[in-house]
Specification:
4-stranded antiparallel beta sheet, mainly beta, 22 strands
């Protein structure tokens, strides 16, 4: 009966539903959403639980305690401001939501409020164009920190704020922004921690033209940031340009432990994998039997020991579901 899901049956019916950035669970289930409740299904696609306290969107990630972090659209708004009114359609009050493995909402905090509390009001109300559209922040990725380093602590989270072209390192335990990062990236997605001093960002490298167009400048990129040297580096730009990787919206990209690069060009339905020398090793295109190409919904590589064990178990138990 919530106003947030008034049109849910029509806008999120099975024919239109995108299973966004699914998380594999230890009991062989999946956790996902699509600007919708957070949902868990079992290995036979039966509903296990559903959390509809708000609408959840974009990324899903585990933290060091296997809690689940997802961006939310909070309503009623937590951001108490005379500038946004009370109507749900006025404003996207993006939040960071933390769930237990059973789908219980542990934390749901407004990013706008976090920014204002830490002296960054301009990131919420400083852009007339984006503020007028009610989407000044557009949180699109939460990357939990699972190990301590000189520059962050276990329990911190990295947040990608697309519409401010900035990254923040936030400490929920103290409500403090540890670092705000801006640099040679624009309308970015997908933060990944590379080692104890470096992160990577999928840079959509977007330009808003005076002709009201949104275009990618040559290609998407993966940009790394080093906390120790306070420096940026662009990785394998030649491979991205040669293969015309240019999704203006969404997109994923990560540098693997061996130096390989995984890329999802979401809006153009491609996954590309480059070896550590920068050469294209393989490519997948989401093409159906009718020869149409369909967009992808935030794929991930599962190469850790736990995930591989779960996948092998699923293969062995595939006949259990009717």
């Amino acid at each position: 009966d919530s106003i947030e899901f008034k049109n849910f049956s029509s806008t999120n019916n099975p024919a239109r539903f995108r299973i966004f950035n699914p998380l594999l669970t230890f009991d062989q289930g999946l956790i996902f959403h699509h600007n919708s409740p957070l949902i868990k299904i079992d290995k036979c696609s039966n509903l296990v639980w559903l959390n509809s306290e708000d609408r959840f969107h974009h990324s899903n990630e585990y933290d060091h305690e296997y809690n689940i972090w997802s961006p939310s659209h909070i309503y009623p708004f937590q951001l108490d401001s005379p500038y946004i009114g009370n109507e749900m359609t006025n404003f996207y009050d993006d939040g960071i939501a933390k769930f237990s493995k059973d789908g219980e909402l542990i934390l749901n905090k407004s990013v706008g409020k976090i920014l204002i509390n830490n002296g960054y009001k301009s990131k919420v109300f400083g852009s007339s164009m984006l503020s007028a559209q009610g989407d000044p922040i557009h949180l699109n990725d939460i990357q939990p920190v699972i190990t301590d380093s000189e520059y962050w602590k276990k329990g911190d989270v990295f947040l990608s704020l697309r519409n401010t072209s900035s990254i923040i390192l936030y400490r929920p335990s103290t409500d403090k922004i540890i670092k705000l990062i801006e640099g040679p990236f624009s309308m970015q997605h997908d933060i990944n921690i590379i080692d104890n001093e470096k992160i990577s960002v999928f840079d959509n490298n977007v330009v808003h033209t005076t002709f009201d167009q949104v275009v990618v400048d040559k290609s998407n990129r993966i940009v790394t940031y080093n906390f120790r040297t306070n420096s940026f580096e662009v990785t394998n730009i030649d491979g991205f340009i040669e293969n015309e990787i240019k999704t203006a919206f969404e997109g994923r990209g990560s540098i693997q432990k061996n130096g390989d690069i995984f890329v999802e060009e979401s809006s153009r339905g491609r996954i590309l994998y480059f070896n550590s020398a920068g050469d294209l090793a393989w490519e997948y295109i989401s093409r159906s039997e009718n020869d149409k190409i369909y967009r992808l919904t935030w794929s991930r590589i599962l190469d850790d020991e736990n995930s591989l064990k779960i996948i092998n178990s699923l293969r062995n138990s595939s006949k259990e579901c009717n």
